[in-house]
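Please review this one:
***
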Amino acid sequence: MDVTGLLIFLAIGAIAGWLAGLLMKGGGFGLLGNIVVGVIGAILGGHVFSFLGISAGGLLGAIATATAGAALL
């Protein structure tokens, strides 16, 4: 993974963590916490969606998958 891919991955993680914090009626975990929750959520959401046979492509699909996974945390 190059630097650009890593930055995009972290940005998606931050957005997903922030959205999950809003959806779960929490205040979030701060920027670093949101990134960590979002990245772990992206991994979890990817596995769950794959297991269920759901495919969400593109940037919005990645954010939705990561947010769903982060909300499960």
Remarks:
- The first helix runs from residue 3 to 23.
- The radius of gyration is 11 Å.
- The mean pLDDT is 88.
- Helices lie at 3-23, 30-52, 58-72.
